[in-house]
Design brief:
The longest helix has 5 residues, at 76-80. It is built from one helix and seven strands, in the order E-E-E-E-E-H-E-E. By secondary structure, it is mainly beta. The protein has one domain.
Length: 104
């Protein structure tokens, strides 16, 4: 199960929109959370940085079919392939991830 609690941004302040590949810049520390925006509208996809000099970000995205969040990773090539109107915003958020190990 994945729960994401986003701290609301201040009213009247429009966030700084960044290109998705900027998340891989060295200025972001491990655990920085970003939210995906498209056409200046906040979406339901979130990213978490993995640390300095890492080549991937953790992607947490809503799956309508499963009606839950799923997790994957994206590298710079993946991020470059996004639609040109897709941007990300650094946000303050708490991500709670609970793993359940299944035995087979």
């Amino acid at each position: 199960m994945i729960d994401i609690k986003v701290e609301k941004r201040l009213q009247g302040k429009f966030p700084k929109l960044l290109k998705p590949t900027n998340m891989l810049d060295n200025e972001w520390s491990r655990g920085t959370v970003f939210q995906q925006w498209s056409n200046e509208v906040a979406g339901t996809t979130f990213y978490i940085t993995c640390g300095h000099h890492e080549k991937r970000v953790v992607s947490i995205w809503w799956c309508d079919e499963d009606e839950s969040y799923l997790i994957s990773t994206d590298n710079k090539k993946d991020l470059k392939n996004f639609n040109s109107k897709v941007r990300v915003v650094e946000i303050k958020a708490e991500v709670d991830l609970r793993l359940v190990l299944a035995s087979f």
